[in-house]
Design a protein that fits this description.
By secondary structure, the protein is α/β, with parallel strands linked by helices. The protein is 39% helix and 22% strand. The chain has 14 helices and 22 strands. A hairpin with a 4-residue loop joins strand 3 and strand 4. It binds nicotinamide-adenine-dinucleotide.
């Protein structure tokens, strides 16, 4: 693929610059140098993308499920060949460590494989009415043109987790990636093009500023689905926008994951799980453990062992493959994390590990803070960085209350004796709970949150249903 294509919009089957001819800079957060310019999409470009998707809808919806599945499977095969190249792109624009980027690419690609298999398993339903006077046929049909908006923290996986089910269901898409990470999105769209996606079925736009262009697209009658992953703040705003035209909305929003270490937990496996729950993706994950609640009997040993493990992390540019922790996505994110830690200290917390940041790149050291008052700012906020904030607790009812004391409900982790941990898992307000494990994401599982962490589920057999509508057809007996 030629380099220029990777910096352009993809509309109606063609790579092109935006209508204004303007571009924006994408920056490498490990040294703040410019990587390259990317085309700015005007509102008219966005409208053209939705129009192209609308024109493509009928044929795509009528394409045989097997054909849609095989296209996704071809995309999977191409992406597998190019995994390292995509990982390099992610490292450059996002800053994460190479190992994290490669893990992301493989995870992302599994959504192409999974939904290539789900495309041929779309089922309906048949029942007889209770009075026996009619047959009730329920068919599942593609919802229509889908607007997909993704964040910068998993630029590949958040795109494929939406594109995979949408295409499998028979919906054309307009993808709007985060401004920080458009190159990964362009690469993935390029793969779909090479896999043979028909004209107009996949479109890529990068408007600057974002809000007005997204609003314009959402108000176009052809758009019937909004699938958004990002912050709760922006999600709320978009739900208001979507209400105007009653657009079906799936929302994967922020988290504030508690990680509970119950009395009697095995500390070897708990530390292992806690490290991955905290440090996967450098802590920039909606699933990242944010608040550590540790039973007082284990607190000191847990803190000591976690701190020693984090002290061994090699921090530096993700392109140096030996580094365990790369940069945060921007100067702003680094400063936000640093300020959260500083203010936690003002509120009475103590730093026992790390706490330093670099000037010449968006790096922040793996950090542990203890004596964190429950309800303090760092406890209420999604940290999105490599900082573990630890609170000691005495009894199970108290820790369940503290864990649930948040407007978020995406994911929780519980470590402890299995039956006790399971009992606690059922009491936690979260769409996902890890019991004695620190990673849950899996294409075969329904991913999503309760409360203000979102609406709907991605992945699993549930993910494709977000892009389908049920139609009831009544028939005579
Ligand atoms: P963000 O909300 O700032 O941006 C997400 C996307 O929305 C980007 O593409 C951005 O350009 C776009 N956007 C921003 N303002 C907009 C507006 N006014 N109108 C329309 N679109 C707009 O989030 P972010 O900083 O890119 O990502 C981090 C957030 O994403 C965190 O809160 C994280 O928890 C969340 N996240 C959630 C999940 C999940 O599955 N629940 C997964 C990954 C990230």
């Amino acid at each position: 693929m030629s380099e220029s294509r990777l910096t352009q919009l993809f509309i109606d089957g063609e790579w092109r610059s935006g209508g204004s001819g303007e571009t924006f800079a994408v920056v490498d957060p490990s040294d703040f140098t410019e990587i390259a310019q990317f085309a700015v999409a005007t509102e008219e470009d966005c409208v053209a993308a939705v129009d192209a998707a609308e024109r493509a809808f009928e044929d795509w919806a009528l394409t045989a499920p097997r054909e849609r599945g095989e296209l996704l499977r071809s995309a999977f095969e191409i992406m597998r060949q190019e995994r390292e190249e995509i990982a390099d792109t992610i490292v450059r624009e996002n800053g994460k460590a190479f190992a994290d980027a490669l893990t992301e690419v493989d995870y992302a690609n599994e959504f192409f494989r999974w939904f290539s298999e789900e495309a041929v398993r779309i089922s309906g339903d048949y029942r007889l009415s209770p009075r026996g006077d009619k047959r009730i046929l329920v068919s599942r049909e593609p919802i229509g043109v889908s607007l997909l908006i993704t964040p910068w923290n998993f630029p590949a996986a958040m795109a494929t987790r939406k594109i995979g089910p949408a295409l499998a269901a028979g919906c054309p898409v307009v993808l709007k990636p985060a401004r920080e990470t458009p190159f990964t999105a362009a690469h993935i769209v390029g793969i779909l093009e090479r896999a043979g996606v028909p004209r107009g079925v996949v479109n890529l736009v990068t408007p600057v500023p974002t809000g007005p262009a997204v609003s314009r697209m959402l108000h176009m009658p052809a758009v019937r689905k909004l699938s958004f992953t990002g912050s709760t703040e922006v999600g709320r705003l978009l739900l208001h926008e979507a209400a105007d035209t009653v657009v079906s909305s799936s929302m994967e929003l922020g988290g504030n994951a508690p990680l509970l270490v119950l009395e009697g937990a095995d500390l070897d496996s708990t530390i292992e799980g806690a490290l991955v729950a905290k440090m996967r993706n450098g802590g920039s994950a909606c699933t990242a453990a944010n608040r550590f609640y540790v039973h007082r009997s284990l607190h000191d040993e847990f803190v000591d062992r976690l701190s020693r493990a984090l002290d061994g992390y090699r921090v530096g540019p993700g392109r140096d493959r030996g580094n365990d922790l790369g940069a945060l996505v921007s100067r702003g994110e680094r400063d936000k994390v640093a300020q959260l830690v500083d203010r936690a200290v003002d509120e009475g917390a103590r730093i026992v590990q790390g706490g330093g940041s670099a000037e010449d790149g968006a790096f922040y050291e793996p950090t542990v803070v203890v004596d964190v008052p429950h309800g303090s700012e760092i406890n209420r906020t999604e940290i999105f960085g490599p900082v573990a904030a630890v609170v000691a607790f005495d009894d199970v009812d108290e820790v369940v209350r503290m864990a649930n004391d948040t407007e978020y409900g995406l994911i929780s982790y519980v470590f402890g004796e299995e039956r006790e941990a399971m009992r606690v898992a059922h009491r936690l307000d979260a769409g996902m709970v890890g019991v004695n494990r620190g990673v849950l994401s899996d294409p075969a599982a329904p991913f999503g949150g309760m409360k203000q962490s979102g609406l709907g589920r991605e992945g699993g057999s549930e993910g494709i249903l977000e892009f389908m509508e049920e139609k009831y057809i009544g028939l005579p007996v």
